[in-house]
Amino acid sequence: MTQALSELEGCVLGHLSRRGPATAYAVRRAFLDSPSSHWSGSAGAVYPLLERLEARGLVRSRKAPTGARQAWLYAITPGGRRRLRAWLLPPFSADLVSTPQDPLRTRVHFLSLIPERQRAALFDAALAGLRRHLSALQALRKVGPDDRRALRGAVLAMRARIAWFAGLRREGARTRR
Amino acid sequence: MTQALSELEGCVLGHLSRRGPATAYAVRRAFLDSPSSHWSGSAGAVYPLLERLEARGLVRSRKAPTGARQAWLYAITPGGRRRLRAWLLPPFSADLVSTPQDPLRTRVHFLSLIPERQRAALFDAALAGLRRHLSALQALRKVGPDDRRALRGAVLAMRARIAWFAGLRREGARTRR
DNA sequence: ATGGCCATGTAAGATGTTACATGATTTA
DNA sequence: TAAATCATGTAACATCTTACATGGCCAT
Predict the structure, then answer these.
(1) For chain B, first and last CA: distance in Å?
(2) Which pLDDT value is given to residue A67?
(3) CA A87, C1' C8: Å apart?
(4) Whether A24 contacts A50, CB under 8 Å
(5) So what's the pLDDT on residue A28?
(6) Which long-range contacts (CB under 8 A, 24 or more apart) does A138-141 make?
(7) B 42-81 residues with CB below 8 A of A?
(8) Do A159 and B161 touch (CB under 8 A)?
(9) What is the pLDDT of residues B39-87, one digit of tens each?
(10) Are A99 and B126 an interchain contact pair (Cβ–Cβ within 8 Å)?
């Protein structure tokens, strides 16, 4: 009962809580405009999601004119705020703190399938890509303190991945001689 | 055309490449037994996935007795090996190197919704969970060099997250006075 | 006034999950 | 030999994605 919020549902409720009532499209824009978004903000995700949240009583909608057209304006309910707080606050389930999935790590699990002499090129390509992405992150000028704090976490995560691959490359070079 | 492999497809092909022909159940076991698995190894994922791979010519199956029952034994094909190499080796697409999703970071994006006085408790709960998970990682005794290298990446990622939250807590303490 | 983009959705498909069914094998 | 577990799937459902439809708005 009282099913927990998914990540996407938490983000949508969080958006409504911070910005006030919004149309589904405005919620989509927040995802479409976010540089770090893991989700595409696709209409087929957001519209049904808001309907589900309304069926659960976490948001309420009313028809409202946006320009000359009618659209549904969604607002978070008191119950929605309670659920959002439960999503945001401890206790944190194990999958929140466990190691996030990393597609490069997935590939490292199969490194033995790659001939030794090709591995250095793989490490270098990964390092180049990781550094490029880190630069892009650091070039972001986030406005709010929330984004700033989250961005710091992303930067630290990227530095850790770079240090990891740098170590792999050193180890490979040592092994090869 | 020649659709790229998904993460799960890459893992399954990698397993078949390393271990040789296997039944769908044996592939499932690899996921079920893996401590770090992001995937559940559910039957409903693995069985149809192998059928899709066969339809694409990347694996081939034959009926074979496993004990007294018949089951499909899947083997990777030469085309499957080529595709697996393309999945494993550079060039790496942007989403491989971009910051992996972190549910704690998602929540930090909404930290402003939490009263200041409750944030320290949040940071402490996160730190406790992160440290517990790091200990569990370090307690693992992985056998192969692949797992050892991947595990090092996971440990570094966890240390980075811990350092990040430790910083957030210090910052919060400084702000509060 | 019209061609292109913005806003509001809907539909179809991909890919995962949990739950179920069922026969073989092991264990108490 | 009965119960539990293993092995082999299938089915129903959840939740994303991309692609489509459609009407309003804006710039030329």
Answers:
(1) 60
(2) 73
(3) 29
(4) yes
(5) 96
(6) A140/A35
(7) none
(8) no
(9) 999 999 999 999 999 999 999 999 988 777 888 999 999 999 999 999 9
(10) no
CA angle (B87 as vertex; B83, B93 as ends), nearest 5: 135
pTM for the structure as a whole: 0.94
For the segment B159-173, the average pLDDT, to the nearest whole number, is 95
A153 touches chain B (CB under 8 A): yes
- CB-based contact B109:A30 (threshold 8 Å): no
Interface of A with B in 76-115 (CB under 8 A): 84-85, 87-92, 94-114
Q: How many CB pairs under 8 A join A and B?
A: 202
Cα separation, B11 vs B37, whole angstroms: 11
Rounded distance, CA B108 to CA A91, Å? 15
SS3 A35: coil
Burial track B13-35 (b if 16+ CB lie within 10 A, e otherwise)? bbbbbbeebbbbebbbebbeeee
Ramachandran quadrant class, A37 (left: phi over 0; alpha: psi -120 to 50; beta: rest): beta
**Which residue, A56, A64, A55, is CA-closest to A26?**
A64
The reply to whether residue A157 touches residue B161, judged by beta carbons under 8 angstroms, is yes
Which pLDDT tens digit goes with each residue over A39-81?
Answer: 899 999 999 999 999 999 999 999 988 777 888 999 999 999 9
Total Cβ atoms within 10 A of residue B82: 12
Q: Point out which residues pair with B59 in neighbouring strands.
A: B76
A167 touches B134 (CB < 8 A): no
Residues of chain A contacting B90 with CB distance shorter than 8 Å:
121-122, 125-126
Place of tokens 């998914």: A6
Query: Is it the case that residue A37 has pLDDT exceeding 90?
Result: no
3-class SS of residue A108: helix
Query: Residue A43, CB, less than 7 Å from strand D?
Result: yes
More confident residue, B172 or A177: B172
User: Which of A14, A105, A137 is closest, CB to CB, to B99?
Assistant: A137
